[in-house]
Write a structure and sequence with these properties.
557 residues; alpha/beta; Response regulator
Amino acid sequence: MHQLLIIDDQSVLADDLADMLPWETIGVDVVHKAYSGREALELMREHSIDVVVTDIRMPGMSGLELIAEIKKTWKHTKCILLTGYADFEYTKQALQLQSSDYLLKPVADEELMQAVRKALADLEKEWQEITSTQRAMYALREQLPKLREYLLLDLITGKTPPAPQLAKQLDMYEVPFAIGAPSHLMLLRIDDTAQRYDAQSETLIDYALTNMAAELFEDRMEVWTCKDAHGFIVCLLAEKTRQSAVGRADAGSADAPSSAEAGGQTLEDWIESRAFQLQHAARSYLRIGISVLTSKSGVFPDEIGSMHQSSLANFRHFIGRDTELFVSLAKEPTRGEPQQLGELYRSPSIGALLEIGNWEAAEEKLGAIFRELEEHWQASQEHILETYFTIASAIAALIHKNKKWLADTIGDDFYAVASGRPMNTVEELRSWTGRVVASYRRSVSSVEQDSRSAIIRQVQEYIHQHLDTASLHTISASVYLNPSYLSKIYKLETGEGISEYMLRVRMEKAASLLAQSPDKIYEISVMLGYQKPSYFIQLFKKHYGLTPQEYRNKLGV
């Protein structure tokens, strides 16, 4: 079904066209109205408009100017012009702006509906062409390298899709990695930081280095590469099947041993020898120095994210600012160095989920946090305490934000916080967390009995769920209140305006994405509902005192 927008500064005419014609008979299920070009653009930003019908002569912004603005951002939207002036110059301008039709007032109902019907048919034909199988397959083939890179970036940052979906993606992107198979991760860092590379040169060097790695490892390993948010080239390695590994050397002898096995090398020794060769080749042929770190073996894809985090931490610890070094984590002591907890700090935070009352997601988040503790840090008092302090501070902040006392809200469990009594086991921490979250939830439920408080929570929940599209108009519609009245009670209850709260939430989300995701700044801008990256950058700098790129650089991302 489709959406139609009718614009005329004479509100009676706009209302009549919108409300009196049987638009549903031609596949239009939503009809919007606007009485000026500016109001029309606001509606365009909030809704997916398929066809625009606009008068030419309007004060402020003419219909031709409006269409020009629409075509800048919504190039597939079809536009139909209405005018009482049979002027050929208008017709020429309309044709230049690629409007779908040009109708003279007063327009007959059937004539207008036929024009809209034709515009919708043209739009459907366009999209059918865009999404045709032949074009889609061609585009897929052209974009395979980037699609592979984006998928690996998702995996190393913990965004692992369900196994069936991942299997389809691996097959579609022609990535020869098997789910559940062992894999190794190798980090490469170009150490010649004194040299100044422009973007094109850096891309070429990265490309040459990844090709060298593929060439040196291809005898025994599949190699899958990407560049992470920290500037490291990430090479995921998986041992080829015996048949593929020896097939080139002896197609008729599937049982022939590989060269590494014949030399008595373990897989880790073989990887190490090839990593040294890669360092030498980079220095000899690319004239660059590189440092290399290889991980312990891990299961694909479940352990890829933790392998990446561990590799980053160990790279900084063992290599740091030194250059042209090699480190193999396979030869490190089992206990190794303490690593940062991953799930505890992965967005969304437990505090954010509890604040908006998303209890089911909060329960899942806590389950993931405690699974990580049990699987990797069961015997680490330090990691148990880190988790305890993080959860306790989040709960305390939320309770105080709701204008309640900790002791009154969580009862005896408050004294565990007040006395600083440590949590000795994961199970003890899990039990304590379950009790205080349940107490907080009961407290929130009692507060929500007050209608205004319930409305505030609905507003905040809507904003969190529709961060890229939320506006005062859509928010007020979601709670069935007049926008002016809603603004007044929200300010009265919270001390800040809805716009201020939306800005704060968007900026906090932006900071989280800048710190934890590889997304580009303009991509983050669109995710948060800002179509113009320059406006997003201006707001972010005003909020944090730094541009998004300066913020990301400061974090070392």
